Amino acid sequence: MDNFCPNCGKPLEPNSKFCPYCGQRLENELSINSGDSDVKLKSRQGIKKSGIIILFLLLFIVGAGAVGFYIYHNKQQNIAAVNKMPKKDLAGLSIVYAHNHYKNLAWDKTYNEALKGNMVVQRTKQIDINGATITAKGNSYIYVINNRVVFTTDKNKKNSDSKLVLSDGKRTLGQVNTIEAYNEIKKNNLKQLNKINRIRQVPAVPVRKLAIMAALSHAKSNDLEESIDLNLKDHSTDLYNGGEYYRLQLGADGGSATEFKIDGDMVTVKYLDLDKAADEADAPTKKIRIQLQDLLEEYYQTNEQKEYVDKLASKLTPDKSIR
């Protein structure tokens, strides 16, 4: 590194005490080459700028991650909320969505009635309404609201995977995925939806009736009635309290058993799936979880269904722990 005289600027020999050109005293007054100084200054500035850029990148990544997590978490919450709804509660979702999207007197009148607590929902496969006959196809069911408007959805799919097809009987207004409808209503009309879907008291269902409906969820009704009649004839106990699960035993083998339990508004049913095995030993255990309200709608809604379930339930012989 070269030294220069601070007075005249000419180059100096190392360790010089006086400038040989102008006589300037040089102790503690040497000037450093300005070129090296510029390089060091620029280097420091570059490091500082790089640090700021890296900091901003880190903040951006953290912020983007937080936003992404919030969006994912919110989406999962909405899916869970929709899937917990009994099929009948999709009526409220349909009513609010239709009110927001379609100018239709039938749906608007139903909306106003539902806000006042007047809402009756019936499920069927076919109905004559407003001069038209509507028939549900495949696994779909028709839900009739206040005997005026209808929505159709697939009974075997999760709510989050289903579409709501909305109609006033005369024409189909449109269709929407349940999650899409719920996301929209949650942002703008959640108060109205909650008011319409007010808490419903799920009726207490006697164990005997629940046993019949649990068995009907996977067994043919004719086979079920025949097995119950045989047990009744032999005076055999066929309904047991196994602790966590109740067990309806309609034969000597495991394939004749239906286990079930109720937890809040959910019913869990277990049985051996004999259709997927060569014999009972290889049969896998199948488990079904279903809303109690949906189970009642499936097997205990019409007068005919109620009479049938009540008749079979009365023939069961429970153990002493079951009243």
- Output the number of helix runs: 9
Please state the structural category.
alpha+beta
What spatial order of strands do you see in the largest sheet? Answer: 4-7-8-9-10
Strand content: 15-25%
Q: Quick one: overall form?
A: elongated
- Span between termini: 103 Å
Assembly type: single chain
Element string (H = helix, E = strand): EEEHHHEEEEEEEHHHHEEEEEHH
Organism: Lactobacillus kefiranofaciens
Keywords: Membrane, Transmembrane, Transmembrane helix
InterPro entries: Lreu_0056-like, Zinc_ribbon_dom
Protein name: Zinc-ribbon domain-containing protein
What does this structure look like?
With 323 residues, this protein is an alpha+beta fold. Among the domains are: 87-196, no CATH class; 207-315, Yope Regulator, Chain: A. Helix content is 42%, strand content 21%. The protein has nine helices and 15 strands. The protein has helices spanning 34-83, 90-101, 105-115, 178-188, 190-196, 207-216, 221-234, 292-299, 303-315, and strands at residues 3-4, 11-12, 31-32, 121-124, 126-129, 132-135, 140-145, 149-154, 163-167, 172-177, 239-241, 246-249, 257-263, 266-272, 285-291. It has a five-stranded antiparallel β-sheet with strand order 4-7-8-9-10. Helix 2 crosses helix 4 (178-188). It is elongated. The termini are far apart. 26% of the residues are buried.
